[in-house]
Amino acid sequence: MGKQRQTALILGEGPTEFFYFKSLCDVFKNITIKPDYPKHTSIKELEIKIEEGISMGYSHIFCVIDMDTKDQEPERTQYQKLRAKYAKPINKPKKGIYCNVEFFETHRCTELFFLYYFRYTSRSYEDQESLLKDMNKNVEYRKAIDFFIKSKGLHSYFERNGGSLNVATDNANRSMEDKLANGRGYTYSELGILMEKLKELEKK
Length: 204
Hints:
Strand content: 15-25%
Oligomer: single chain
Structural class: alpha/beta
């Protein structure tokens, strides 16, 4: 990638995040956003993608994590080790590499942030299906590649149907405040923090 500039590689764990963050490229026009995801949803595969991004010269790598798959071992321990490995920025001056790797969690999954486009909730979801059912009360949504393509950009699709990224960001941040205040370990999203970081990068 040559000389360092403000470039963000966003790594999700599957096609949902890929299609969503691809749809945000028109929102954040002053930074280069490249979404990607491992072909196999494992922590090891995610680590390989992170290392690829570092070697390609990305200045920021943002990992979007679904926490419903991190509740059980061995995934929980593997994930904690991965976070610890990248706790400090990667700094290799001789290779012209300086990269911040950060993790942004949502419980249960990224679809909670989509629901936050429309309204706030702190209810506990036992599975993804119950969350998707709530999502469909606000807008038609299917977790399927053909639907993602048909929507012509998930972000604009949500906004065309009465949702708002600003509302989603505020609701996600509220979920984190509630989580801290109540010690809640479910129904929260750090994607509001990620959106604010992307806005900051836009200004640089």
